[in-house]
Amino acid sequence: MQTTATKSSVTIHSFPNINPINTAEEGIAQGHHTGHYGFITDKTVPLQPVQGAKNLYLVCFNRTIGETECAELLRAEGKRPCQNAPQYLLGLMASVPEDKMPEELRNKDIVAAELDNKASVFSDRFGGRCFLYVFRDGGGYRRLNLASVGGRWSGSWAFLAEDLVP
Known about the structure:
Order of helices and strands: EEHEEHEHEEEEE
Helix content: 10-25%
Strand content: 25-35%
Radius of gyration: 14 Å
Distance between the termini: 24 Å
Shape: globular
Low-confidence stretches: none
Number of helices: 3
């Protein structure tokens, strides 16, 4: 894991060779979570099987950004939203216990926000569109949850990203 600050307002942490987890329930079991939203099951969060390790990044812009602004800001950093983000978010949580997470990000929620992939957007129990995310309080608490799609992202979010492929 390496920290790179590319601009004073952006923090990027790298996590090499993270393998995906292809079911929500396996991710819950292996993810070093202290809890999870009970609505999250393999049925309500269906994941398409993917293979292959990726070098991942957690990118925090440390300011409020618009819902669709994330992809543009990541591109400026040479990154893009992680493809098959939910599977790799679960893999990251299984690979990196909370006490091994970078201190700068310990109070940041981690979101698998991939707007261009319908398979990465789920519905909550009320039918609202959501992304998979991990709520973190900085004190070791991790809760797998669903974040509503729509609106702005505050500076308390870290986005799961990968290298921009030309």
